[in-house]
Task: structure prediction
Amino acid sequence: MGEGLDYASSGVDIDLEGDAVTSLIGALGRSVRSSGMKGAPVDLPGGFGGLVEFGDNYLALATDGVGSKLSIATKLKQWSGVGIDCMAMNVNDLLCVGAEPIAFVDYIAVPKPNPETHAAIGESLTEACKRARVTLAGGETASLPGIVTELDLSGTALGWLPKGSEITGINLKEGDVLIGLPSSGVHSNGYSLVRKVMEISGTSWEDSWQLEMDEKRIERFNEGQITFGEVFLNPTRIYVDPVVDLIQDGPCSSENIHAICHITGGGLSNLLRLHDSLGWHIHSPLPILPEFEWIEETGSIDRREMYRTFNMGCGMIIAVEKTVSSEVCSWLQERLEGTAMIGEVVDNGHKVTHIDSNIVFEHY
Result:
């Protein structure tokens, strides 16, 4: 196949996207609401969710979409997981600031309305609300012929938290323990690269998956053997249960939870968003799921690029005080099998390091 693939070669340049977002933020005006007013902005590192003042509480907002994973759903006419993906990408971000998600609104753009497709997405969003424990408060459908060529789905989640309970990373310190929560698969990032690898492999989405796979992890929509389509359309895990319960009623004070990171686009480099100077070392990574091994081998993709593009089997990382780490990890393991202590916070010059010495990230 020649030179291996990377995310940029599939059409997505993470560094360029970062520069574009920085330019956008730099051009935005300041809020018209001043401190003390409802709706006034709250400075918050990390950027996983935005906070605004609301009396004795904060409201938290996050907005995101499903991305090019929808292209696979369109080809296979399988929509059962896309509403869950959309919900997960939003509510999982809210968890990172310590917020409890409470409501969601969706936005669907299509070239032409299709009642059957919309009904399937509605069912998927209903299931997503159950998993996220939120109210679907509304939505919008736009028919945009000539502008969109395939269905696009995005949404916005609303959450809340009491003032003073926000999780910002400010309390992080050297020696804090990193607890990894397993992912359900590729989730909803890196699909431009997934589709490119599928293209060069000559594999069909309807082909049977041949590698060993924990079938209980895959949400089936076919009978018989698991297909590539089912593996790569497996819905994103929603972490509301158990993370909200950990924050509100877990075995330790929420003050001992120092940071939460949603591992999305950018992979492990997302950790760098949570502190300006401290670093992170992954000494016992969660097992790499077989779909990532297939992508890496088939696309001849460098291991570091894989960890920069995908979650690699770890969808969320929680940093906790060392003295409570064993208790917290055991509590989480009872609720989410595969959870484990994977690393620690270190003072290494603000970078992410890994047991694989080739995997180092010094910027997000």
